[in-house]
Amino acid sequence: MISFLNIATLFYNLKALKMKSVLITGANRSIGLEITKQLSKKGLFVYLGSRNLEKGNAVVKELNENGYENIKAIEIDSTKPDTILAAKKIIESEQGKLDILINNAGVSGIYPESTSEASITGIQEVFDTNFFGVISVTQTFLELLKKSDSARISNITSGLGSLTLHSDPNWKYYNFKATSYVTSKAALNAFTIILAFELKDLNFKVNAIDPGYTATDFNHHSGPCTVENAASFIIKHTLTADDAATGRFYSNDIEDETEVSPW
Predict the structure, then answer these.
(1) By three-state DSSP, how is residue 215 classified?
(2) The predicted structure's pLDDT at residue 223
(3) 3 state DSSP class of 230
(4) How many CA atoms lie within 13 A of 106 on its CB side?
(5) What is the mean pLDDT of the chain?
(6) Omega before 262 cis (within 30°)?
(7) Is the pLDDT of residue 204 over 90?
(8) Please, are residues 200 and 207 in contact by the beta-carbon 8 Å criterion?
(9) Segment 6-25, tens digit of pLDDT
(10) Beta bridge partners of 45
(11) Cis ω on the peptide bond leading into residue 224 (within 30° of 0)?
C-alpha cells in the first residue's frame, strides 16, 4: 500500500526533475549561501554543498522556514575525493544529470604573506581547496554535466588572480600581494581557460567569475560590496544564453559594460 509520505516524496522528486539543478560548493554561508537563496527564488533546484552535513541541514531548515524551497544540503569537501564521489552518486540518483556547477568553495590563506618566506605547506593547503579541489569536483561532475542541455561551470575567482592587473602599479589593489591566495586564483584562471577550450564544441559555458571585494568572513567584512550584489553578479554570468561567451574572466570590479577582466 502506498503511503501519503511516499506519494509526497514521489511528487517532490518529479517536481525536482523538471527544474534545472545546480551544485554550489561552500554554500552554507556568505556568498555561496546568498547564491543559494537567489537561485531558489529563480526556480532552480539547489544542492547546497557543505563540508559538514549537519551544518548544511541546519542552514536548509532555516531557509525553508523563511520561504526558500527546493534546496537540499549535500556533504562535499573539495579536498576529500570520497565526499565528492558520494555527492555525485546522490545527484545522479535523484536528477540523472547536473545543469550547473558553481565552484565557490575557497580559502584565503595567510595575509600578509612574504613570498620569500611563505610556508610550502601553507601554500599547498590553499591550492588544495582553491585549485586542486576545483579540478577534482569538476572532473567528477563532468559526466553529469554532459547530460545537460545547457551546462554551465562557474569558477569563483578573484580579481587578485589577474597577472595583468598585478603588474600595473596604478591598479587599486596593486599592493595586495598574498602569495598563496593570488597564485592559487591565477592557477584557477588558467584552468578555466583550458577547460573552456576543451569543452567549446559542446553545450558548455565555462567562465571565471570574480564577485568583487565583498564583505564576508573571508576578509573580516571589510569589502565594500554586499553578498547580495556579489551573488547577483555571479548568477548574471552563470545563467547565460546559449550564444553567450565562454572562457571569459568576469569581474564585478571592472567598471565598463563588458565586465571582462584581463587575465
Answers:
(1) coil
(2) 74
(3) helix
(4) 25
(5) 93
(6) no
(7) yes
(8) no
(9) 655 554 555 555 789 999 99
(10) 21
(11) no
Domain positions in the chain are: 21-251
Q: Is 210 helix (H, G, I), strand (E, B) or coil?
A: strand
User: How many angstroms separate the CA atoms of 81 and 58, rounded?
Assistant: 24
Q: In 3D, which of 110, 152, 108, 111 has the Cα closest to residue 130?
A: 108
Identify the active-site residue in 12, 111, 181, 213. Answer: 181
Cell of 254: 571592472
H-helix or E-strand spanning residue 216: none
* 8 DSSP 8-state letter: H
- As a whole number of angstroms, the distance between CA 75 and CA 83 comes to 6
Buried b (16+ CB within 10 A) or exposed e, 41-64: eeebbbbbbbbeeeebbebbeebe
Half-sphere exposure of 77 (CA within 13 A, CB side): 9
CATH no. for 21-251: 3.40.50.720
Cα–Cα distance, 248 to 263 (Å, whole number): 9
Query: All 3 cell numbers of residue 137?
Result: 569536483
Q: For 89-114, write each residue's pLDDT tens digit.
A: 999 999 999 999 999 999 999 888 88
What distance in Å separates the CA atoms of residue 12 and residue 5, rounded to the nearest whole number?
10
213 carries an active-site annotation: no
Read off the pLDDT of each residue in 78-83 and give the average, rounded to a whole number: 98
Q: In the structure grid, which three cell numbers stand for residue 69, read together?
A: 524551497
pTM greater than 0.85: yes
